[in-house]
Design brief:
α5 runs antiparallel to α6. This protein is mainly alpha-helical. It is built from ten helices and no strands. Keywords: mRNA processing. InterPro entries: Znf_CCHC_sf. GO terms for molecular function: nucleic acid binding; zinc ion binding. It comes from Tilletia indica.
């Protein structure tokens, strides 16, 4: 590995930082090195005004120096103007951003120490009020009566810390209040979806092929068709109820067998009184007249 390039006292802070990194990397690769050896090697990496300064102040007492002390002394002696200018620029453009007020005020004081001329108390107060968050600065100016020309640095910092604490508490309450409203809105949406759904209607299985029980025919009031055999028996002798399933072998009629009269019902199965028969027939059809063949002759 080649030795680091020599620094000639360039007033650029970036150039000095790059030179310091290259020297530190070189020492790390060739470690372990004693502090006296590191100090002597630093003299070989300088040129111009930094080299003259080294031979005048460091070389005579090299045993009392460390490599870090030499680098810090070079920076203060040759880059004080550059550091002051950069610190002044950072001070004028400093913003709080995501820092809390305590960290921001410490950063401003650090930049003020690096400036060639320390800013006045009023300039510090104005920079602090301008750099902090607008919500905080406007609140403490309106509610606490903070003024950059009258209030002290400590008063501004304390008022800002109190305001930040109050804002955090208000945000926590706001978040706790918003959560139930969101849950209630979700519940209302679910209930609305439930009401919008069509009601459930039970539909029985109408597939007769898969059904195990036969389907019951629907009742009808239509007249039945003539079957070819008419029952001429009296109304009180006509059979009622379900149709019999016994069929005669001779006349093919239902309700009796061929052992008896094929076309008459056995009279021993029916008991009818004459008076009751006459009243029933008259009630059935009052205009119907009966003619008996056994009437006495005039």
């Amino acid at each position: 590995m080649h030795a680091p390039e020599k620094w000639n006292g360039d007033r650029s802070l970036q150039a000095f930082t790059d030179w310091v990194h290259s020297v530190a990397h070189y020492f790390k690769i060739h470690s372990p090195l004693s502090e006296i050896l590191k100090v002597n090697l630093l003299g070989g990496y300088l040129s111009g005004d930094p080299l003259d300064w080294y031979w005048r102040y460091v070389a005579p007492t090299s045993s009392q120096w460390s490599a870090a002390d030499v680098i810090v002394a070079l920076r203060r002696h040759f880059l004080v103007d550059e550091l002051s200018r950069q610190a002044a620029d950072d001070f004028e453009s400093a913003k709080q951003d995501d820092q809390d007020i305590h960290a921001f005020q410490a950063y401003l004081l650090k930049l003020a120490d690096q400036m060639a001329e320390y800013p006045s108390p009023i300039a510090l107060n104005r920079r602090l009020l301008k750099g902090m968050k607008h919500s905080t600065s406007s609140a403490i100016i309106a509610n606490r009566g903070i003024d950059a020309e009258v209030s002290s640095w400590d008063e501004i910092v304390q008022a800002s810390m109190d305001q930040e604490r109050a804002l955090r508490y208000a945000n926590s309450l706001k978040g706790a209040t918003t959560t139930p409203q969101i849950e209630r809105k979700d519940l209302d949406t679910k209930q609305k979806d439930t009401h919008d759904r069509a009601p459930f209607v039970y539909a029985p299985n109408r597939n007769k092929e898969n059904s195990g029980t036969p389907a019951i025919p629907a009742p009808t009031t239509r007249p039945t068709t003539f079957s070819g055999v008419r029952n001429t028996s009296a109304p009180h002798m006509r059979s009622t109820g379900p149709k019999p399933t016994d069929q005669c072998r001779v006349c093919s009629e239902y309700g009796h067998w061929a052992s008896g009269c094929p076309k008459q019902i056995s009279t021993h199965m029916i008991h009818v009184d004459d008076d009751e028969d006459q009243e029933t027939e008259e009630q059935d059809d009052p205009d119907l007249q009966f003619y008996d063949s056994y009437l006495e002759e005039d």
